[in-house]
Amino acid sequence: MVTVHDPRQRELSPLLPLLAAADPARVVAWRQGEAVSAAHFLAEVRAVAASLPHAPAVVNLCEDRYAFLVAFCAVALRGQTNLLPSSRAPQAVDEVMKAHPGCHALGDQPLDPAPPGYQQLPSFDAQQPARVDAPWPSLPADQVVAIGYTSGSTGTPAANPKTWGSFHASNAGNLARLHAIVGERFEVVATVPPQHMYGMEMSVLLPLLGNVGVHTARPFFPADVAAALAAVPLPRVLVTTPVHLRALIESGIALPAIAAMVSATAPLPVELARAAEQRFDAPLLEVFGSTETCVFASRRPVVDEEWLLYDDVILHPQPDGTAVEAPQLGAPVTLADIVSLSRDGRRFRLSGRHADMLEIAGKRASLADLTRRLLAIPGVRDGVVFQHGDGDALGVHRIVALVVAPELDEHAILDALRRAIDPLFLPRPLKRVAALPRNETGKLPRAALLALLQSPA
């Protein structure tokens, strides 16, 4: 038997189930065309948990979503913490491991070089795990089961601890919003990695804590997305990003019927949302949150410009951002987003981020709005407007842009921008590139943007 956690914790914190609905037959995952029941899944979780060394934390590097699910639960069942670096790059992993002395790493692939104490999981295609006659597993609500790291799109990745109770609370909001659209039972196909908090919420917590089954692959190309959707029953929910949505639309591929799409990680242009709904005949839900807060609002962009808060979420606008109160947060968290509230505080509009707000010669603009206008130019496939790191004598930073537009030159793009924005905010330089350095979730780490800007043309 696996030692779940210190028994003294049971006296200090209520217990919450590791898997919702104590039904051994419930389908948790779809793997290689086969349904994986809760009983089968838990047997593999217990087997991996028994093999883990004593440690306070584990860097979960599993790439296969099923391996990640098993490892995530096994680590938590041992009373350890899943460490989720913003990247699987060796430097990012090393930085996280140095911040957590005594931790080790766990994955499903051979790595060379491997992190210190790396343990590779056995293949789940081998023999069937032995069933253990044990109580349905639960965890203390205050157990820290994961530490997620921000993407580094605004600077150095920051650590954000998550308790099992906070994950239960945040998942309840996501489930309620999806139930209203697709019903009580649905299957998820996700193009985002489980290590990212959006991927964690939509492809790990939903199948663990809801009546949801998840396809365990992470399809990348449009044909792979179509195949994954075809491998799970109706109703299907596609969890993805604006970058993947654009690729799916431009590919012209026909997708199996889907009940809904969910998007996050980057602003979703309403034109793209409208095209996706028309192309795939399903509503598109955009969710709003952060690694610090998890998701706490959503909207359907083709219908609403305003965001609708989840139940029991309260926003407090401040001069430098917005304080968020939510059931999953032990204390309010202040985000850099500037919002304006409406409808008794239950809806809000985004006005930009405090760090994105620009003021030049008494005029104001936001980097997000400048990027939106850049992307609206016909012929621009991708792009971003951001501030360079070096400021002038008055502390004003240069506005620069990177653009993917194979059929346009820089002058044509700047001429189009000049008609859409105040000339004071024209990016200089504006550099055409073959592709932006987006990470697995479509975000743009600032260090990568600066390196690309400074690279030879």
Folded structure, characterized:
The chain has 457 residues and is of the alpha/beta class. It folds into 3 domains: 8-163, ANL, N-terminal domain (Rossmann fold, 3-Layer(aba) Sandwich), CATH 3.40.50.12780; 166-353, Rossmann fold (3-Layer(aba) Sandwich); 361-454, GMP Synthetase, Chain A, domain 3, CATH 3.30.300. The chain is built from 12 helices and 27 strands. It has an 11-stranded mixed sheet, with helices on both faces. It has a 6-stranded mixed sheet with strand order 7-6-4-5-9-10, with helices on both faces. The longest helix is centred in the middle third of the chain and has 19 residues, at 164-182.
Give the gist of this structure.
By secondary structure, this protein is α/β, with parallel strands linked by helices.
CATH class value of the largest domain: Alpha Beta
Shape: globular
Strand-pairing-aware structural class: alpha/beta
Taking the alpha carbons of the first and last residues, their distance comes to 60 Å
Mean pLDDT: 88
Helix content: 25-40%
Number of domains: 3
Rg estimate, integer Å: 23 Å
**CATH architecture tag of the largest domain:** 3-Layer(aba) Sandwich
Total E-strand runs: 27
Task: Write the CATH fold name of the largest domain.
Answer: Rossmann fold
Distinct helical segment count: 12
Largest sheet, in brief, is: 11 strands, mixed
Please give the order of strands in the largest beta sheet: 3-2-12-11-13-14-15-16-17-22-21
Low-confidence stretches: 1-10
Strand content: 25-35%
CATH superfamily of the largest domain: ANL, N-terminal domain
